[in-house]
Amino acid sequence: MADSRKSPFDLGVALPLKEKLKKFGLDGRHIAVAYSGGLDSTVLLHALVCVLREADLPVRFGMSAIHINHGLSPNAGRWERHCQLFAEKSGVPFIAAKVNVRPCSGEGIEAAARKARREAIFANAEDLICMAHHADDQAETVLHNMLRGTGLRGAGGIPEFHGRVLRPFLSVRKETLRNYALSHELAWIEDESNTDRYFTRNYLRHEVLPTMSARFPRAVEQITRAAGKFSEAQALLDELALQDLKKTELTFPVEISILRRLTELRASNLVRSLLSAQQVQLPDERRLNEFIRQVRTAAPDRQPRLDLHSYRLWVARKWLYFEKQDKS
Length: 328
Hints:
This protein is of the alpha/beta class. 50% of the residues lie in helices and 12% in strands.
């Protein structure tokens, strides 16, 4: 590994990383890096090691690198070996997990792979998880969500810190990470699937965003900044939902009388916040609004029900219930 004291060490990467660790009070917590071996996660792993060493903290006991082998590429085995060697050279404990990617009905291979990867990372991380999503990923995600007809939550893009997951590079451009890697002579792997324009995210990454940036040089920064404002607005709506629910947490079941007392907009906001808190994808807007309308206006002998792939909502005995279900 290149000497971390090479001047300049920061290169627009280490300082944002240290600021985020301080901002969220994460000193002393174990950090598991989601390490694919690509450019972004390689820079994250290297910079974290340097930051911990600079602070005289023991890397071996404060970090680990988790690599998920999807088996989708003929190079998957070689990638895993590369990651193991880099982690060992960095003095970071290495964990490799193999997963089987099985798309559910109506789910693409991209979404299925992300879901399997996330589940495996959570299963193997003992505490905090650090992911290398950057500003270009944020802009791409916001555009993707908006083209799918998302609401305010989707327009907020990727959260910087949520649950156990920290993404310290969301304000850092991809170009900055690349310059850091080249300066420190880091080696990384290139996933051939990342260039396949068939996948929507790759199309946005390689075709749409470069075209936008050619006309509007600060397009990525402006989209990322807007995402932050959308997230703040959504946080306020979630606070309003908690007030309307009269609870300290957004949990089911919910008395139907609460939804009936609220205005239509606030009732809709409450149900959306409740579903998002369960970490499930919201239904089509028209379908959800129609269900909420039925719940608010149904006669006592009627029991509206909404069945989706991974969960269902239904009314029974004047309460609205929620249940996840597995139809894989």
